[in-house]
Amino acid sequence: MIKHIFTDLDGTLLASDGTLSSGNVAKILASQLPVTLVSARAPMEMAFVLKALKLTDWQVAFNGGLVYAPTPQGLQILEEKYLTGDLAGRLITLIQIYFPQVSLSFYDLEHWYTASVDAGILYEAKITGQTPTIIQPTEFFQTGPHKIFKIMLITFDSEELQRLQYFLTALELKGITIQQSGTAYLEITHEAAQKSAGLAIIMAKEKLGLEETAAFGDGHNDLPMLKMVGWPIAMANAQKEVQKVAKFVTTSNNEDGVGAGIWRYLL
Q1: For residue range 210-242, what is the model confidence (pLDDT) as tens digits?
Q2: What's the number of domains the chain is made of?
Q3: Which helix (H) or strand (E) holds 90?
Q4: Fewest beta carbons less than 10 Å away: which of 150, 172, 176, 186?
C-alpha cells in the first residue's frame, strides 16, 4: 500500500556520470506512484529529472533546506531554511584562509557561485551540467542581504576532508549543520536543513502514514530520510552504515536500482 516514494539523486536515482537512465524513467513512470526527489542539489540541478519523470508535486533541495514545487511561473516555495549572508561570508572567509586548496562554492536560490574554477568545480560541473558564476566573495557579500542555501566544499584528499570537518566542527558556530556527501564533499547548510525535515513537511501535508512511504538512498546524508519512512531501501553501492538501516538492498545506481527496487520490493 505504498502511496509515496522519496529518493536521493546522486549515487541513487542518477548513474555515476550524473545521467538518468531510460530504464529508470520507464519503471518509475509505469509504477504510477508519486515521487519526491530529496537531494543536496539546487533546484536548477534537479530540473532535468523533474521533466523526465513529469514531477509537479513537492520536492526537497539543499538537503532539506528548501521544499518547493516547480510551476510554469517559477518555484512555489513551501519551506526554506538558509544561512544569512553574514554567517555564510564569515565561514567562506575562514575556509579560504585555512584551507585554500579546497574547492569552495556556494548557492543562493537561482545561482551557483565560486571565486575560481578548479578541479572540484570542473568535477561538479561535469556531473550537474551547470556553469558557476565567478565572483569575489568579499565583494559579493557587501552588495546586500543574501540567502545562502548551501556552501559546498570538495576535496579528493580524504585526510584533508577529515581535517576540514574537524576544523568546521571546532568552530562551534550556531545555526549550521555540516554533512558529508559521498567521499569528497562537505556541505554546510542551515541547522534545520535535514532531509528528514523535508520529508516530515510533505508527509504531514499529504497525510501519509509511515507504512505508506518508501525511500531510496546511498550516503550518510540519506540516513535521516531512510529512518523517516516505513520502507527504507539502500543501493548496492551504498555505504555500509546506510545498508544497515535499510529493509532491502536493491541493485546499484548504475543498474536502475530505484526502478528495480520499486517493482521488486514495493509493488
Answers
A1: 999 999 999 988 999 999 999 999 999 999 999
A2: 2
A3: helix 85-98
A4: 172
